[in-house]
Amino acid sequence: MLPDDQLGDTRELHVAWLEYYRQTVERKLEGLSDAELRSSRLPSGWSPLELLKHLVFMERRWLRWGYTAEPVDRPWGDSGGVDDAPWQLDAEDTLAGLLDQLRSGGQRTQEIVAGAELTSRGAVGGRFGADDEPPTLNWILFHVLQEYARHIGQLDIARELADGVTGE
């Protein structure tokens, strides 16, 4: 269900839309066979499961490793350890496991957002070095939202090509 159109608080809007997008990703992937989840019908070659893994790591990179400078294992784990490399799966990656990571990452994002000022800047020491001027939490949240929106659009196409399912 779409977030309440009466929400006016930016913090609540960020959290509500991020949760909506996470649920949309889950709905788009439900019902696909393992073969469809792991294969691509697109010239670029990415699979729906690779896209899901990218979203898990993308949110982790920006909020935990970026904004809070928490140490995270393999921040570029969705792309083999290299920024902007093609998305990759590990042998143990499954739909259920990655969806669990997506949900737990969403819970951690909500905790971070609840305890911070939107105008505060990301911490130095994780994604951002001493020579960087880290972005504000508000900017990071908008960036994460646009990543979800963009990739859900791509997932819409992949799902339609896989089995004809369209819509929310």
Automatic annotation (TrEMBL):
SUPFAM superfamilies (alphabetical): DinB/YfiT-like putative metalloenzymes
Superkingdom classification of source:
Bacteria
- Read off the InterPro entries from this record: DinB/YfiT-like, MST-like
What is this protein identified as? Uncharacterized protein DUF664
Q: Which organism is it from?
A: Kribbella orskensis
